[in-house]
Design a protein that fits this description.
Blueprint: H1 2-13, H2 18-25, H3 29-37, H4 44-53, H5 58-61, E1 66-69, E2 75-78, H6 82-93, H7 95-103, H8 105-116
Antiparallel strand pairs: 1-2
Helix pairs in contact: 1-3, 2-3
Length: 117
């Protein structure tokens, strides 16, 4: 189900309708809906069109994890969305914020949860 969820996420992030994505890659709105719900699987040609037109990684679409190396050179297998990567990059731009956020990550998450409730 990774594919459908990630296709939908990419479409919504771009502010596109199912019809717009379908027109872009050469399939119908109904087909895009089927992909997103997990009822249909794209052909290799259509998958290639999705990757190119939406500028997505095939590994990301298919649910494969991204290798991330920690400072201690331990290897972790995780997946980061483009939004998560953008958030990390924005935090890194502000050295004071970066040091506060990553000094005690559990505390930071608690504060964020408290402020969003």
């Amino acid at each position: 189900m990774f594919f459908g969820n990630r296709l939908k996420e990419a479409r919504l992030l771009r502010g596109m309708s199912q019809k717009e994505v379908g027109d872009l890659i050469g399939v119908s709105k109904v087909t895009i809906c089927g992909y997103e719900k997990g009822n249909k699987v794209p052909s290799l040609e259509v998958l290639s069109n999705i990757v190119v037109e939406l500028n997505l990684s095939p590994n990301y679409l298919l649910g494969y994890d991204v290798d991330v190396i920690a400072e201690e050179e331990e290897e972790y297998k995780i997946t980061l969305s483009k939004d998560e990567i953008m958030l990390i990059n924005e935090i890194r731009k502000d050295k004071v914020l970066h040091s506060r956020v990553f000094k005690d990550t559990k505390r930071t998450v608690k504060i964020m949860k408290r402020n969003t409730n």
